Amino acid sequence: MTGKTGEKSAGGSGTQVVHRTARLLKAIAGREQGSTAAELAAATGLTRPTVHRLLTGLAAEGLVDRSAETGTWQLGPELYVLGAVAAHRYPIRELAGPSLRRLAEATGESAFLSARRGPETVCLARVEGAFPIRSHVLYEGLRLPLGVASAGLAILAHLPEDEVERVLAAGAQARAEWGPLHTPERIRELLADVRRQGYAVNPGMIVEGSWGMAAAVFDATGRPVYALSLTGIEPRFAGERRALLGRALLAEAHRLSRELGHR
Predict the structure, then answer these.
(1) Any idea what the Cα angle at residue 195 is, between residues 191 and 201, rounded to 5°?
(2) Which fold has domain 4-78?
(3) What topology does CATH give the domain 90-259?
(4) Domain positions in the chain
(5) What's this model's pTM, rounded to 2 decimal places?
(6) What CA–CA distances, in Å, run from 160 to 163, 170, 191, 213?
(7) How far apart, in whole angstroms, are the C-alpha atoms of residue 138 and residue 122?
(8) Is the dihedral of CA 154, 155, 159, 163 positive or negative?
(9) Among candidates 99, 96, 131, 103, which has minimal Cα distance to 225?
């Protein structure tokens, strides 16, 4: 994350404006309930005048929208249009939809699709299960460092070891923001579990009592590019049921990987 001092020294080039705008849009997308300008400044490292200037320009183009009731900023309608057009090139949500529905219906838990984007995962889709008590840690648009939450663990475990070590070294500060349990040592233990049993388990490391499980989805080249996950309260992920959930995740992840061309 670029600090305010770095922002001032970077100059006002067109490329820098693009980077700042992208950072701002990602920050807006990362909070389901919307964000104030002050919160966006803190999240992006940009000064508040810069955030206000960018928001004004984005709002004029319909790319962001401000709630009249709360004053918070959210993604705008024009981004929905652009996303709908782009979705034809990246049909993963449509491909994953049946798997998410089957997982939610079979388990009663909330099912999610996440994608790897560089050193992060971003949640793309969810289907709520029937069980009335839910975990609300994960939602569409949320970005998490690799190694945080079950989807990031599932993907990270299937990367080459040298790449895993680079991710762990570079993302230590970002992971720490999601809780003190995300140490390299603990993450390596969880990655070893993934490699042994095939699926990842997040044992309440972000919010106590809120558990998650995930299985990696591979593209035609064999890279782990997506993950299917389930989240819920700890008692629903205990004992023999955990193994049942793991098998369900692996079955749907394998099915989706085959649809993406992985053999």
Answers:
(1) 55
(2) Arc Repressor Mutant, subunit A (1.10.10)
(3) Beta-Lactamase (3.30.450)
(4) 4-78, 90-259
(5) 0.75
(6) 5, 16, 12, 21
(7) 10
(8) negative
(9) 96
Terminal C-alpha separation, the chain: 38
Q: What is the dihedral of CA 222, 199, 214, 230, to 10 degrees?
A: 150
Q: In whole angstroms, give the CA distance from residue 217 to residue 256.
A: 7
Structure token pair of residue 19: 């980077």
- Is the CB of residue 229 less than 8 Å from the CB of residue 112? yes
β-pairing verdict for 210-218 and 200-202: antiparallel
pLDDT tens, N- to C-terminus, the chain (263 residues):
444 444 444 445 788 999 899 889 888 887 878 889 999 998 889 999 999 999 999 999 999 999 888 889 998 888 878 877 776 667 898 999 999 999 999 999 999 999 999 999 999 999 999 998 888 788 888 999 999 999 999 999 999 999 999 999 999 999 999 999 999 999 999 999 999 999 999 999 999 999 999 999 999 999 999 999 999 999 999 999 999 999 999 999 999 999 998 87
Residues 34, 69: contact at Cβ < 8 Å?
no
Q: Do the Cβ atoms of 250 and 243 come closer than 8 Å?
A: no
**Can you tell me which residue has the tokens 């690799």?**
146
